[in-house]
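Hi V.,

You were right to ask for the full record rather than a summary. Here it is.
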Amino acid sequence: MKLQCVLAGCCVLAVPVMAQDVTSFVDRQLPGLVTTYKALHAAPELSHHEVKTSAFVAEELRKAGYTVTERVGRYYDGSQAYGVVGVLKNGAGPTLLIRADMDALPVTEATGLPYASKVRSTNPAGQEVGVMHACGHDIHVTTLIGVARAMAELKGKWHGTLMLVGQPSEETIDGAKAMMDDHLYERFGKPDMAIALHDAAFSAGQVAVVPGPALASSTSIDVVMRGIGSHGSAPEAGKDPIMMAGEFITQLQTIVSRSVPPQQPAVVTVGQIHGGTKRNIIPDEVKLELTTRAYSEDVRQTIIAGVKRTAKGVAIAAGVPEDHMPIVTVLEHESTPATINDPALSERLQKLFAAKLGAEHVIEVKPIMGSEDFGFFGDGGKIPYVIFWLGADDPKQVAEYRTKGLQLPSLHSDHFAPLPEPALRTGITAMTDAAVGLLQ
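Predicted structure:
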């Protein structure tokens, strides 16, 4: 992967002048940044495998004058992650962490772009899959590089320490935790605050900040419904786990409708079900893979308890013996807490963006039930953080889709195609302005 990005320029602190200088800086460097973005887009790497992307990020941060450490992060199984940390110390003052996630998705790209990904890989099931930056992490990485160089040029206008993090494995929601488990703050210092951006399917040139709950927690749960196998013609001779699995799926939804307060958002979804080998054989077991979402830890625990209770109840009703009760496993290494933006820091960023970008470019959006692992950098509520949304779509396309009543291609879609030039311009400008404003 050959990626080159050379940024230069300088800015001053006075609000109108600095804003103009940041704009000029981005204008001069945007062609090179767009080239970098396209190269990243064409060479995506799956979670846990961000070898070239992380090396590229590390190289660019070193060029910008940062002290860089690679291979930061350790997963639950003991394997090393490809996290990157770049630190720029600039006198006394607060420490700000800025994160960009680097991994891509097992999606076969269908955008038809000249720089579309043609990368193929093998998933854990041994199947060949396409690989695509269908969530815009290539926008995030390119923005981080632009901000790194801009902040190096602006060293005379801010004080403190800037910690830039290239995070692996956000899509598997275990990369941030891996970095924290590798003693991130003990090794590099504890930040006073943390910010990140994530592109979104609204018009490029706009940003949005959601104070408080912004993204839901995600909890992965495996359920094995165990029965007693028999011939398909003699169901009375066994205990059918496929029938139990069907009843279990139906009853799961009563957890949200009858156990969770109506004022609290919650989702329980069965994403995979595997069972049986032949049409005339009742199998011994069926495996179901679930994902659950909530904003509240109390609701999360209510859902987990409800899944366990429902699975056991279905098995008891079917007459399954005690030694064949369902096995319910909560996969904590595939789970992440809700992303709760700090209200005070959110307000600061909203005002700053309105002043620098123009109030008309700061829009309101609602919290979503999607999940992020950025909240792990909050260290259990000890560090205020905010993740804000960055518009990535062509405004003309947005208007056209709205007129026709259509939905834009969303994140994780094989047709998701950010408009690089305005998205990067706004992302780098907003993040640089935020960093300078916070490091005073």
